[in-house]
Each structure stands twice: as structure tokens, then as C-alpha cells.
Write a structure and sequence with these properties.
By secondary structure, this protein is of the alpha+beta class. The protein is 29% helix and 33% strand. An eleven-stranded mixed β-sheet has the order 6-1-5-4-3-2-7-8-9-10-11. Strands 14-13-12-15-16-18-17 form a seven-stranded mixed β-sheet. The chain is elongated, with a radius of gyration of 27 Å. The structure holds S-adenosylmethionine (SAM).
Amino acid sequence: MNALGRHILVEFYDCSPDLMNDVVHIENSMVVAAETAGATVINSTFHHFSPYGVSGVVVIQESHLAIHTWPEYGYAAVDLFTCGETVDPWVSYTYLKEAFQAGHGSSMELRRGQLSLLKRTDFNLEALRNLPPKTVEADGAITRDVWFTERDENIALSLKHSGNQLYKKDSPYQRVEVYETLAYGNMLTLDGMVMCTQKDEYVYHEMITHVPMFSHTKAKRALVIGGGDGGTVRELLRHEQLEEVTLVEIDELVIEACKLHLPETAVAFGNPRLNLLIEDGIQYINNCEDGRYDLIIVDSADPVGPGEGLFTAEFYQQVHRCLTADGVMITQSESPRFNSAVFVEIYDTYKKIFGQDKVHCYLAAIPTYPTGTWSFSYSSKGESTPLRFDREAAAKFSKEQGLKYYNEEIHRAAFALPNFVKELLQQGGQKTIEAYSVESSDE
Ligand code: SAM
């Protein structure tokens, strides 16, 4: 070969948008495409961007294969770069065209490093040889760097995962996926947004349940809207005083995915005290009788897709109607920093429905949620107030149940709000939001 390398620039068109957004399929295809062409794969690094798009590179002994996809155009730009005679990059081209179900591909081969244009300089190979050789994994396994990324314009959370997608199905409402992350265990995502991980789900689930249960000690009937991962009902059912716990989840695939891959979170789905309903929580609450529940927990995802209607005044008004005279509503109320505008708007709504001094905000540290700081709202229809609670009972319960986050001190501390959150809650208004929000301006 009269050149050091062969570089094929490839354009794949009319590919399946789904495949162009499937980081696991793309990473596997690129690795196999290299091996099929006779290359020795050293490692791979792939990133799945949210809301869509994948970028990655497979490093081979004979150079590299790289890709970037635009699922919205069914398009992939691929670089196949090999050096030496042993690998035929066109074999990779043919393999990938099929793997991506490309309608058609255009390509151009460049010879890189024309020998006639190069002058070899003598350099002391020995000196280079003193460098310790990079070891390939003992069992020949390649080091795979496959990343899941949840991001908005300016902020991203990336988690490395094993490259094996444990679960991926589209329900009528959303895409339900489970990834095997290396740092946080199995992770449930809905439409590319992190819902919970095995390593930190307990923070969210202990705080959304035990705070109201120790400040509203007469609660007998609880309703959870959303919460299909099962963590919230798991925690509620630790409280023997609850005679009935009803879970209304719109999407049975979320329950299926968690039973399979987040079993510790889904452990209570078989509990006889649990009344599990697969239906739209908005319909359920509209048809529910007045004053039926002591505690209503809105364990929703973000205000998009099926969950959008769970962030409206009409919905909260219905919740208020379905609470007993001393009932309490708890919601996950987003991040004061990441969703400042939504945060301010929903607290304004809670206050209009429950009363100015009946609404309280508390915080918890959840590492895999955007900005790591998440909030919950406590709205009381009657006299219940979050900081009037049985500290001893809370301490005893936390110890006996082996809780990992909630205890009597955290219960109290969670309501100690930093000044910027107080300002957002008291003043609200665009100026305050802009002052503290990390949301990208064009949202
Ligand atoms: N902890 C998570 C968070 O803060 O992002 C939320 C957990 S949970 C998985 C959210 C659940 O709400 C999802 O399973 C979703 O299917 C469900 N959901 C969304 N809209 C719903 C609706 N209208 N009625 C009932 N469940 C709904």
C-alpha cells in the first residue's frame, strides 16, 4: 500500500431513527464491524445524548472507527480509518449499512499519509520501547466506555454503563429503559430522563413517605399517583397503621421493568395491603369520592408526557377535594435550581388551593437528579404541620427499619431552606427566577 492508512468517509441515509438513537445497538455494531473486517479492538467509548443522538469511537490496533448520529434525520456520519493491509474497511462499511438499515450510503475513500510525500525520521525506538506496554484485558475483553447522558442545553449528567441494555420497550405513553450503570447499579429512565437508580432511590422514597407519615400520625388511607417503580409504596407499607395503600400508575411497563431489574424497589407489589391500579391518575382522582384519603402522594415524573397533567391547578384542586379534613398532599416538586420556573409556579398554585401558610417545602440530596438537590412539597388541608412530629417514634422507626436516609434530624433539617429557595418561594417572579435558575435561557 503506498499510503499509511485508508480513510473511508461514510454517509448513511434513511437509517431507522430508532437505531440511530440506540447507543447499545450502535456500539455493538461498530465493534462487530471492526472485528468482522479483521481488526483487533482495543476499546470503545460511546455517548448517548438526551434527548437523542449518539457519538462514539472504537479504537482498534489498526486505528479507529468513529460515528455521530442524527436520529431526527435518520442519518449517520461514519469514519472508517485503518492502517496496514490486514484489515479491509469496506467489510465494515457493508456490515454497518445493514446494521443501521441504511436506505443508502455514500462514501469516499482517502489514502492517508501518502508515502511518497512522507520522509521517515530515524528516532530511537528503544527509548519508546521503555514505556510500559498498555495491557489488553486478560480475557481479551475490550474496555468499553459507554455513557448515558441526560442533559438540557447547559447541564448534563453522564453515567457510565456496561453497554448492556437490560430493558427497552415503548409503551403508549413513554420509552421505558433500564441501564446497568457502573456507579449506581441498575437505572430506570423514562423518555431518556433518570427516574431512579438502585444506589440512591432510597433518598427519594424515604423522604416522600416518612415525613408525612410521622407528622400525620392518624393516617389510615394513602393514595400514590405515579410511583410505578414501587419505592414509594414499599416505604408506606412499612407503616402498620396504614389500612389501605392505593397505587395508581398509568404505565404497566414501568412496573414490569422494575420487577425485573430493580427488585428491591419493586418488592412491595405483592403486599396484600396494596391496591394496585393501572390507570391514568388524573381520571382516577376526578372520579374519586370526596374526603377519601388521609395522605395523597403525587410521585410523578417531570411535567412532560403523561405526567404533564399532574402539575395543573385542576389536578391539585381535585386532590384537595379527595383529602380528609386533616389530609395532607405530598408532591415531588422538582429542583429549585434546575426547574425554577416550574418550582415557583407550582408552589403558587399549592398556596392558592391549600392556603398561604399550609404549604411547606423540603429538600433532599439525590445525586442522580439534575443539580443533585430535589424538593418535595407538604400541603396540609387541616392542622397537620410537618415539624410537629413524634421525634422518638421517628428515630425508633428509622433504626428498626434500617432506613438509609430518613431519621428524626433529617426530618427537621430538610425544612431548613437556603435563602435562594426562600426567595423563590416568597417572591417568585421572573427576576428572582433568573437570579437563581440554572435553566438555559431559551427554555
Ligand atoms: N422519582 C421519579 C422522578 O421524580 O422523576 C418519578 C418516579 S415514578 C417512576 C413516575 C411515574 O409516574 C412513572 O412510572 C409514570 O409512568 C407515572 N405517571 C406519569 N403520568 C401519570 C399519570 N397521568 N397517571 C398515573 N401515573 C403516571
